[in-house]
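Q: Hi! First time doing this. I have a protein sequence and I read that you can turn it into a structure. Is that right? Here it is:
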Amino acid sequence: MSSNADLTLWDRHHHWHAFTQMAEYEPLVIERAEGVWLIDVEGNRYLDGVSSLWCNLFGHGHPRIKAALREQLDQVAHSTSLGMGNRPAAQLAKRLADIAPGDLQHVFYASDGSSAVECALKMAFQYWRQCEQPRPEKTTYVALGQAYHGDTLGSASVGGIQRFHTLFEPLLFDVIRTPAPDPRSLPPDVDPSQATQYFLAQLEELLATQHLRIAAVILEPLIQGAAGMIFHPHGYLRGVRSLTERYNVLLITDEIVTGLGRTGRMFACEHEGVVPDILCLGKSLTGGYLPMAAAISTPEIYNAFLGCAASERAFHHGHTYGGNPLAAAAALATIDLLEEEQQSKQLAVEPHRLESLLKKINAHPHVGATRHLGMIGAIELTASPSTPQPYPAELRIAARVCREALRHGVWLRPLGDVLVVMPPLSITSEELDFLCQVLHDSIDLVTDEVQHDTAAKEISL
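A: Yes, that's right. Below is the predicted 3D structure, encoded as C-alpha cells:
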C-alpha cells in the first residue's frame, strides 16, 4: 500500500496540476470526503468553500447520487452516442428540455464546460450555412471583455482574460469584444443608475454596424465568474436578448457556473425572463460526481441540421463520452434533488444567511466590497480603508488569505485578488458560519501582517 509520503511525492512530481505553478506547489492530497468536508491523507478536514471548483452541488458522498450510480453500474457504464442512445441519457435529455427556459428542447452532450461552449460555437457557425435563409458571411462572434468560457481553442478565443490565454493568442481566432458590463468601470460622467443603458448602447452600436457578419453573442448571464465575479447591472441580459433578436444574431448563454440552482433560480436566465438560442451547462450538471456537459438548443437551431445523409447537414461534432450513462444517472439524481429543494423552499434559506455574513465581512477595513447572488459570493480586498485601492499584485493578497484559511480548516481558491465563496447548496447554517468566520479571521491576520511589514520597511528606509 502506498505511504502518505509516496503519495505526496507522486502528487508533486508526476501529477501536473491545472493552472498551478508546480515549482511552488505544496501537495494537498485528498483521501475522502463527507458532506461539505474534504479529508486529506493525514486525516485533516477542510470545509469545501468553493464546491471543488464550483461543481459539487449537494456535497460529497450524497446517498441519492451514490445510489443512482450504483444502480446504473449494474446496467451499463458506457455506450457511445454516435448512432445509438441509452436509457439515462434519453431521460436526462427530456428532463433538461422540461426545466430549461422557453423552447430550449434539443440536448447535445459534451464532456465538460469548455467542450459545451465549443459545441455551441460550431453549432452557431454551421446553423447560418444551412438555415432557411443561409447567411454564410456570419462567421464572427461577439464576446464580453474579461469573459471566460473555457480552455479549448474555440472557447479560449471567445475568452478575454489575458493571464489565461495571451500566450496562446497566435492560435486563437479573432472575436469582436465589447466591454464587460461592470458598473464599477463607468466613466465619471455616467450615473450608476444608467449603467444598463450605457453598456447596452455600446453593444447596439457594434451590432448596428457589424451584425451582417456576426453569428452569435456569447456571454455568462448575470455574473462573469473567472473575471472576479463581475455582477452585471439589472436588465443588461434582457437588453442583450432584445438586441440580438433585433439584429438577427444568435445568443449563446454560458450557464456552466450560474446554472442549476447557484443563483437561487434553476438558471440565471430566468431572473430576467431570457431564452437564449443555445444554453451551455457543465460543472454542476452531475452534482460534481462525473464529467458531463450539454449545449441545449431551440427547435429553430436543431431543425436546420435535419436532412438526408447525403445532405451533409448533420452536426459534425462529437465526444467519446458524450451522453455517458453513468454521468447521466448522476445528473438525473442531481436534478431530482434540486427540484425537491426548490419545492420545499430550502434553497431560499442559506442564500439570505450568506448575504448577512458577507455584510459583516464587508465591514472589515480591508474589504473594499462584497457581492452576492444566491449561493455565490465575492469579496474584494483593499489596501486602503478609505478608498477601493487594491493591494500590489506581487503580494498575492487573496492567495495568502486562502492559505491562512486552509490552516484553519477551510479550502478556498481566489480569483486574482478576489475571494470567492461558493459552498455546496447542502451546507448547514453552522458550517456556513464557520466558513465565514474563518474567512474574516484570515483576512484580519493577513492584512495585519501586510500592514506590519509595510510599516517595518518604511522605518528601515
